[in-house]
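Here is an idea for our session: we take a single protein and study its fold together. Once you have written the record down, we can walk along the chain together.
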Amino acid sequence: MNAIGKVSFGALILGLTLPALAASQVMLPQARTDGAVTYLSGGIGRDEALAMRRAEKNYPLSMVFSAGKHNEYVADVYVTIKNTAGKAVLNTISDGPIMLVKLPAGKYALTAEMDGKTLHRTAMVSGTGDVQKAFHWPKA
């Protein structure tokens, strides 16, 4: 292969790998802390949502928020998580349709509110990233 062919082949390989490399470099939203609870909130756009899905294994609880008959993802959801004693361990507003939360093992009451409509779930968290809860409002 001559020098021009090697350069062209190298450029082709670089052109094929750069988009994949760029997608893998998508930054996660900034982790935040409320008391003893650390969480991520975001997932806006395909790349950030995929990055958050990859990070789920590091967070014992993941929540997804959607609304309407077409399951559109939603943000600006007010989230409260309470322990078994009824004490709120997290009060925040989700910046996107996905929220990942680091909680100690235990049972929790989850509340998500959007446009004055509140949904409730319970979660038994074991300490690994295996609890997923979906909140869906039928009418957006």
Remarks:
- Confidence is low (pLDDT under 50) at residues 5-23.
- The chain has one domain: 30-137.
